[in-house]
Amino acid sequence: MKNKSSLMNKAFKNYRWVTTGIMLLGILIFVTVAYLMTESVGKVVILTLVAICSNALLLVGLIFPLKYFVSNYNDVMESMKQGDLKLFKRINEFESNKMFSKLIRSIASVLEEFVELVKGSFVTVESITSTTRTVNQYSDEAISAVEEISRMMQQIAGGATRQAAQSQTGEALMETLSEEITLAYNNCHLIMEETNKMMKVNKEGHVSIATLQERAQSANNATHEISDMISLLMEKMKDIALFVETIESIASQTNLLALNAAIEAARAGEAGRGFGVVAEEIRKLADQSHNSTNEIKNLVASIEVETSTVNEAMIKMNSVSEEEKEAVASAKEVFNKIAVSIEAIIEKILLTNEAISKVNQDKEQVNRVIEEVA
């Protein structure tokens, strides 16, 4: 990291030298152009100015901001890959880059909502589990009551055919039977109430899953969008590398022309002395331009490496996003199965309620028979 910082500082230092050289070159050209500059020297100066200005603008306006963004974005992607989805705490690192900050904010918001929905789904599942336990408890009590009713009905049937002296025992059994029937009837109502609550919770969970599925799709789309932008960025870096090579070629040609101009000035003797000074300054600027292009090439190479790392992280993020999408779909299927099971439970409870109502009617008939026998 220190080497990268030192490299950027050296590039800025070269940029200041280039700017100073351009100003000096302008003054020298203004003084000597009227009587020394030939057509070939004019080309030398123009090429030198183009190379130096292009290097300075490229270095300050594009390479350093891009280098800063890619370096920080790579760290963020690594954090997301490890499961850290809270990007808001690092969003200020991208505020200076309007090109990407809006997209990063959008992804961070989607991921935060995604996490909240997942937490809500866990709460819903826990609620359904608790309600299911309650329903099972009431169902067990209802089954026990029905078994007790069946046993007492058998006793009553046997006692009704015995002697009238046993009628008091039958009356006691009928009182117990009446209590058991009432208990079973009340348990059925409680089961119905708990089942309705469970159905309501399941519907809410189903809605949450649908929202979660929508958010997961949004996150997946945003991830693919960033992946596309990273691919485009890598293509642009290749274009920048070609542009830097072109500038380096121009600087080399400028250096060669300046050398030829210096030779010609030496041949001209005293008359070419001023021309030689201009040629020497042009050669120095060409050397500085060459050094700056080397610094830019090193920065571009470093950015390409980090961009490749970010691209690999995005590929892994795409894979994780697809897995999350499948998990949400599976959760939705589970909630659908829960809804089907609840409907089946309600149907059985209704049948049990009808059976208990019929037992209650039979109880009244048995009471009348016992009274007649007594």
From TrEMBL:
Q: Per the UniProt record, which residue ranges are transmembrane?
A: 21-38, 44-70
Q: Which domain of life is it from?
A: Bacteria
Name recorded for this polypeptide: Methyl-accepting transducer domain-containing protein
Q: Which UniProt keywords apply?
A: Membrane, Transducer, Transmembrane, Transmembrane helix
Listed GO biological process terms: signal transduction
Task: Give the matching SUPFAM superfamilies.
Answer: Methyl-accepting chemotaxis protein (MCP) signaling domain
GO CC annotations on file: membrane
